[in-house]
Amino acid sequence: MKETPFNPSGFAMDEGFTDRVDELKWLVGGARRHAKLLAYGPRRMGKSSCLLRAGEILKREHDGHVLYVDLSRYSNLVDAANALLKEADAALHGWSRWRNFLIQAMKGVTFRAGTISVGLEMKDRDKSDHVTVFLEVLDSLNTAASKRKGPLVVAIDEFQDIIRLGADRAEWALRSALQGHRSLGYFLAGSEAHLIEKMTSAQGAFFELLETKAIGPIAREEMARWIDTQFARERLKAAGVGAACCEYAGDRTRDIVDLARRTYERALSKRSADRTTVEAALEELIADKEDPFFRIWSSLPTAQQAVLQAIAAEHGRELGATAVRRRFGIKSTGESSHAANALVEKGHLQRLGRGAFVFDSPFFKRWVKGLSAADAA
Ligand SMILES: Nc1ncnc2c1ncn2[C@@H]1O[C@H](COP(=O)(O)OP(=O)(O)OP(=O)(O)O)[C@@H](O)[C@H]1O
Ligand SMILES: [Mg+2]
To answer: What is the pLDDT of residue 355?
Structure first.
């Protein structure tokens, strides 16, 4: 099949990347002055893609490098340290001083079959030793950065996971490393709002250390225009398709791209698409997610199911109202707020303000709505 410009499961690259002008300016400018930056925002908004795109720009225009590690992918910090070493070696290997210099800076590092790593026996040690290894890699990169002209940045994605992976107070150890690293830039990114708020609050480890920027939705008109342009490049007739994708998929970039991709695949055979094609693609998308949605649904207590149904029926701002509670079988206001809070914790709902909630996924919302529609029929 023809390659699509819409790739909802990887990172947005090349033609698949649009907008984020301010964010990129902030990241690239920060990297050049070795700043410590935190990009935060809801899931699927495009945070990781921004960091990597800034890396492409730094490489192309400033002889710089962004070394990327996503902490959510690892079960221990030794693996994360090795992933970072691999990135660093790939980026800096052409620079002859790098390996010599690394051996001097890190005791536990070994070279085998051309690859550089920390011995896996480290994994048998305590978590506090794992933290030390990870920070040693950062220390060595800071020294490398001090000997280079172009900016060197470590991007730590889902950085709040340092708490999950590290020993007690690992986040404080990371703070002092960042504070001491005058030559190395940092891009931190994360989506767990409550943890990040805590970590950057007056009592948190990162208080007044980081420059922060919220990564919000790409403006609808921009997103719609970009989608339409991709269809036009393939000479597909697609009136209003971009706008319809944005309308049905909500404000998360990935959801919009997911719907655009399915619409595009349908359009390729018919050479055209319109609003009804987007609607058909949406039905297909939700049908494909039937299994995971049903698994989530059946794992929830009945009170949480009732709250989801009420919110799917557009009562997310008035869950406590007697009429709403009666209709959906919610016993008390206490029960509704307890259930809604639990659903926020699980990532299925987002809190808009006191007592107001919306679904995290527009697709899950439609699926839940479909359950009640089937009952009514
Ligand atoms: N600037 C962009 N232009 C076009 N598409 C984008 C852009 N940013 C993100 N996307 C789309 O959204 C998807 C998710 O992006 P990304 O993984 O960067 O988001 P994230 O906020 O890091 O998500 P997560 O919370 O799951 O880690 C990408 O695969 C891509 O399809
Ligand atoms: Mg991400």
So the answer is: 86
